[in-house]
Amino acid sequence: MTNQQSVTKPTALQVVDGVDMAGKTCVITGASAGLGRESARALASAGAHVVLAARSHEALADAEQWVRAEVPGARTSTVQLDLTALSSVRAAAAAVAEIAPVIHVLMNNAGVMFTPFSRTADGFEIQFGTNHLGHFELTRLLIPQLIAANGARIVNLSSDGHRMSDVDLDDANWERRDYDKFAAYGASKTANVLHMVELDRLLRDLGVRAYAVHPGVVATSLARHMSRDDFADLNRFAPAQQSTKTIDVRRDFSTPEHGAATQVWAAISPELSAVGSVYLADCAIIDDVAPYAIDKAHALALWELSKKLCGPEELLVGGG
Ligand SMILES: NC(=O)c1ccc[n+]([C@@H]2O[C@H](COP(=O)([O-])OP(=O)(O)OC[C@H]3O[C@@H](n4cnc5c(N)ncnc54)[C@H](OP(=O)(O)O)[C@@H]3O)[C@@H](O)[C@H]2O)c1
After folding, report:
1. What is the pTM of this model?
2. Which of 55, 131, 162 to mutate to test the pocket of ligand 1 (most atoms within 8 A of CB)?
3. What is the pLDDT of residues 131-177, one digit of tens each?
4. Can 179 be counted among the known catalytic residues?
5. Which of 138, 165, 241, 303 counts the most CB atoms within 10 A of its CB?
6. Distance 318 CA to ligand 1 centre (A)
7. Where are the alpha helices (DSSP H) in the chain?
8. CA 171, 181, 259 angle in degrees (round to 5)?
């Protein structure tokens, strides 16, 4: 999508035009910047109480102030959340549950991309730990609040970058391989889809549906770890990306206003009320997903591994 083409696609604000979310609560991770902040503005403008979660107190305060200035009368709260430490995730889940005993939308949006090798406080590879395991733990701790909504949605931000790599369940934390930051991002984005598949299977009968979203290629601060050489290096993944279209990430990008449209659509669209466990892009269901990302047995295996890595905390449903 070029910048010019993006003009014909809806913005997140247009997606919520005429939608009434009054009385509903939406929790958004990574709401201090980029797609998360734009989603917060759109959902607040529809009347939802929006809980903005992110790492930095200052960035959160700025984002909340921005949403309130953009949307007079907006109902917002903030919760400090660092996905690179399970202790912070657990404290954030407790704080969210205190603010929001009922959650209608949980948008697992925060993320990092192509970061140099490092580990989280709990020893997980940084991209898998931040993008997947932190959200896995947050989500499982908020399941009671989601069930209480009698019709909730979980929206996991994935990426077409999931095509770069499956998750290696035998070495998910890169302990026995040379590190490849591109493949590690791809694996974490595959994990976001697999997480969604298992969440939907586990929770659909309890009124909670789950979705995975590719927002497009959007000009945000996500690419801050990329060098000029990295753009060239990405070409080696081109064959894996062929199944959709060839994207020139230096040219084909949209703005956060347009980029946030699909995740907001996932959160509110009546077209999805009887559907779950689907991959979305351009405000539509997309069938073109890497088969390993929607494999049900693989999704269950990732769930079991994630549970083992995050600790013994039991789910309140299905012995999960
Ligand atoms: N932009 C794109 O082209 C694109 C394409 C495909 C998929 N996506 C996905 O869309 C999502 C949002 O990306 P974006 O483009 O909006 O990126 P962004 O502008 O960099 O925003 C990322 C957000 O995540 C937060 N975050 C990062 N690390 C965190 C941590 N450890 N704990 C809590 N929050 C953390 C950031 O806050 P702090 O760093 O201040 O903590 C920020 O609020 C990501 O999951 C990304 O993978 C984006």
Report:
1. 0.94
2. 55
3. 999 999 999 999 999 999 999 999 999 999 999 999 999 999 999 99
4. yes
5. 138
6. 31
7. 3-6, 12-15, 34-45, 57-70, 86-99, 126-127, 134-141, 143-147, 181-203, 228-233, 238-241, 256-259, 261-268, 296-310
8. 115
